[in-house]
Structures are given as C-alpha cells and as structure tokens.
Design goal:
The chain is of the alpha+beta class. It has a single domain, classed as Trna Endonuclease, Chain: A, domain 1. Helices cover 24% and strands 33% of the residues. Strands 1-2-3-4-5 form a five-stranded mixed sheet. Strand 2 and strand 3 form a beta hairpin. The longest helix has 17 residues. The radius of gyration is 15 Å and the shape is globular. The N terminus is likely disordered.
Length: 131
Amino acid sequence: MTDMSSHSRGHRSGEDRSSSPWRDYEKLAADFYRQQGFQIVERNWRTGRLEIDIIVRKEDLLVFVEVKSASSRKFGHPAERVDEKKTVNLTRAARQYLIDNNVENCDLRFDVVTFVNGQLEHFPSAFNAEE
C-alpha cells in the first residue's frame, strides 16, 4: 500500500490539474501496474468527451483502468462512483480505443483503482463491458 496522506487534496478552480493530487494518484496507480509487470500503454486517453485514465498491457491482456479517490469514506467508497453510467462510458471509450488502434486477439479487463486517505485498493475485473 502506498501512503500519500501528507499530500493536499482537491484542486481550486483554475488550478493546473496536471500537478494536482488527482494526477498523483493516477501516477501511483500506473506505478502499481508497472510493479505487477504491466506496460503503461496510455494515460488519460480521450475520445470526444470520454476518457480512460490508464490503459496497461501484459502479454495478451489489455486492461482499462479507472482511478477514483476520496479523503475519507464519509460519502461512501470511491469505487461506488463507478456506476452504470460510468461503466457504459468506459466501455464506449474502450471500444473506440480498440477500433482506433486496430487491437485484436487479446483479452480485455476493466479494473478500478481507488485511493482512500492515500491508501491504494485494486479491484481487478471490477465490471463487465456494458452496452
């Protein structure tokens, strides 16, 4: 587990999000996958208004990763924010990524990585592709 509890949270309006704790969590999630032997294929891949936080690959497995964080569980676990609408949007984005990059013959997985008070939690195969 990685502890980032000493870092500040949130961002002010107009603040450069590339240096925000939110981006730090995405970097930590990417580092977690690297440590597991995955190659980071993309970070913050966009198609239209849809985005995939991280795309990683290990051999014939391509994983689309959603990263969520919260400073506490006061308003529920951050994984709960990956609702049906979010899974549909992630599935659409993943399909477009596969088309744009001519990806074939590989296994696909959707993971969620959360940070609560800086503690990483990994949810492999968090959901199935949604229409």
